[in-house]
Please model this.
Amino acid sequence: MEEQRTTEALTVDAKEAHKIVGSGHRYLDVRLPEVYETGHVEGAINITFYSSVTPAGKVKNPQFIEQVSALFGKDEQFIVACNTGVRSKLATLDLFNAGYKNVKNMAGGYVAWKKAESEETEVKPN
Model:
């Protein structure tokens, strides 16, 4: 129950994530490199949360925290996202537990980001 409250407090929707990234904060994409390469947020940093995903199961990247630590400070605010928000929720919780107190999971992942982006474009006058 405590874990659920923590992940809810650490989660923002795609519109809020757009504002955070738009204000100069970074975007950490935790998808596998081959998925990241099919499309990603401009300027995103890719550090995979799982080192492999197969029908037999998922293997967590054992160097994930270390790799993030090499690029992000523990006081830095940044968005963590995957494709739909499930993997990034787990990654965000691991980062929070490792001392990253300003990390935010983006609900809905890259799919939600693209949807929010298209809705924003539709609303803007020409």
